[in-house]
Design a protein that fits this description.
Number of helices: 20
Shape: globular
Low-confidence stretches: 195-224, 228-233, 469-485
Structural class: alpha/beta
């Protein structure tokens, strides 16, 4: 039976699109493009609503609990942090106070809640390293365990997180990935794989590896900063994997206030029994922070339940632990196990695979447009446009239209997150206007392409009437591209 329990919760608010789509004037500034793409007024309204019902009361509750001995892991998307910095610094201060507690570990979350891992893995590595720097700056703690968008995980995502230097990562414990394994153990997908390559292949790869790592004569030897501490820079393994217990997590995340559920009403002593009697080393629970007060309103009893849970677990000999503490405990004792990861990502959304976000024609079309916007931004080499493209790659924009051509519980969950203001457009209108937002973004970014900037500069220079005869010089393209904003 399990002896340890780790609780992880993630705080996120999307940066919602402005529908109907707003036309963007040709040659608009990047600030004006952003204003046309995103509905900040709507974002503020939803932010303040969730802050009142969930963020404030739940943060206060967890602050009380961790001061009494409970341990908690918490992550923040930069989408949420950006909104908190703009509209409620008092709330941000409260979360900083919570994270500062000794019993709280901060988890590094994919900052934009985007699907960048499907668009550009090298950029994901860079962005995750940057995220760790920023989280440390904002909260005073550096994350060494990470989460991706919607807890997505695959072999390639794992390799990117390994390259970024993280010590651990979280993922959903779906049976189609775990197969015969339980989610109650520590796993790794690292260097020791259960197959043997031919000797010649081993020798050839070793020679290639030696060439790759050989220093270039005269080149400076730089080492990129890792999220890990200096003592952990030389990691003996790739990131360890903590797999969320799906059933026990969803009992709270989805079913707690469902009067039609056979477990309703759920009491803390019953839930503590379920945890204590689970087979394995530990239970890792993962929830949206909005579970407390938003998904389950205060009158559901969710706050009273959570306050009572630590005492009931203590009676049953279950101890709280942070994700890093679990990695320390079970990796050093040799109780970590190999887990083969699929190339197709698993996620905690819906039935646990990427089809939740790409399963209907509207989602696939929108994802193609995300590709197009990101590609144009890359061609522009303009960091501000790349930033906009990352915002437009938010998974929420696909999540909000999962209901299209579908029904059932997954469609209902998706419809719940779709802004109420959009429904007046009708189902097909929502899809058409979403697509128009991305098409407008592509056309608005085209004038920032370097080749077009060069032609515009030459045309401008040719139209000037010189005061005296002089020899025209070629424009500084690099400087010009950098100066456009």
């Amino acid at each position: 039976m399990v002896a340890d329990l780790a609780i992880y919760t993630v705080v996120h608010q999307p940066r919602r699109l402005k529908l109907p789509a707003q036309p963007i004037p040709r040659g608009a500034s990047i600030e004006d493009i952003s204003h046309c793409l995103f509905d900040e007024r709507m974002n503020e309204r939803y932010f303040r609503k969730v802050a009142e019902y969930s963020y404030y009361p739940a943060a206060q509750m967890f602050l009380e609990l961790v001061r009494k001995g409970m341990k908690l892991a918490i992550g923040f998307s930069f989408s949420f942090l950006r909104q908190a910095m703009m509209w409620d610094t008092q709330l941000l201060n409260l979360f900083q106070e919570l994270v500062a507690e000794e019993n709280v570990e901060i988890i590094g979350v994919e900052p934009y809640h985007s699907f960048q891992f499907l668009l550009d893995l090298p950029a994901l590595v860079t962005r995750m390293r940057w995220m760790a720097d920023e989280i440390e700056r904002i909260f005073g703690k550096r994350p060494v365990v990470t989460d991706t968008t919607e807890m997505c995980m695959s072999a390639t995502i794992y390799d990117a997180l390994d390259s970024a230097g993280f010590r651990g990562a979280v993922m959903d414990g779906r049976p189609w990935v775990l197969q015969w394994r339980e989610s109650t153990h520590l796993y790794r997908y690292g260097d020791e794989k259960p197959y043997v390559r031919p000797i010649e292949t081993e020798r050839r790869n070793a020679d290639i590896g030696a060439q790759l790592i050989a220093p270039i004569p005269g080149a400076p030897r730089k080492r990129s900063k890792s999220p890990a501490s200096n003592a952990d820079t030389e990691r003996k393994s790739g990131p360890y994997l903590l797999t969320r217990h799906v059933e026990l997590s969803d009992d709270i995340g989805y079913r707690f206030s469902n009067r039609g559920w056979s477990g309703y009403p759920l009491y803390a002593d019953t839930y503590a029994d379920w945890i204590a009697n689970t087979w394995g080393d530990f239970v890792f629970l993962g929830w949206d922070f909005e579970t407390f007060g938003e998904h389950h309103r205060a009158d559901s009893g969710i706050f009273e339940f959570t306050r009572a849970l630590p005492g009931e677990l203590l009676k049953r000999g279950v101890s709280f632990a942070t994700p890093s503490a679990l990695i320390d405990r079970y990796s050093t004792s040799g109780r970590d196990y190999y887990l083969p990861l699929p190339v197709f990502p698993t996620t905690w959304a819906g039935s646990g695979n990427i089809e939740f976000f790409l399963g209907n024609s509207a989602q696939r079309t929108l994802f193609q447009l995300m590709h197009d916007v990101y590609g144009i931004a890359q061609l522009s080499e303009n960091p501000d446009l790349l930033d906009l493209a990352a915002w437009l790659a938010q998974s929420d924009n696909l999540h909000m239209i999962q209901w299209f051509e579908r029904g059932g519980s997954e469609g209902e969950v998706s419809a719940y997150f779709t802004p109420q203001e959009w429904w007046s457009l009708g189902n097909n209108g929502i899809i058409a206007e979403q697509q128009r937002v991305y098409l407008n973004a592509v056309y608005a970014m085209e004038p920032y392409l370097p080749a077009r900037l060069i032609r515009q500069a030459r045309q401008k220079n040719s139209n000037k009437v010189p005061r005296r005869k002089n020899v025209p010089t070629a424009p500084d393209v690099g400087k010009m591209a950098r100066s456009v904003s």
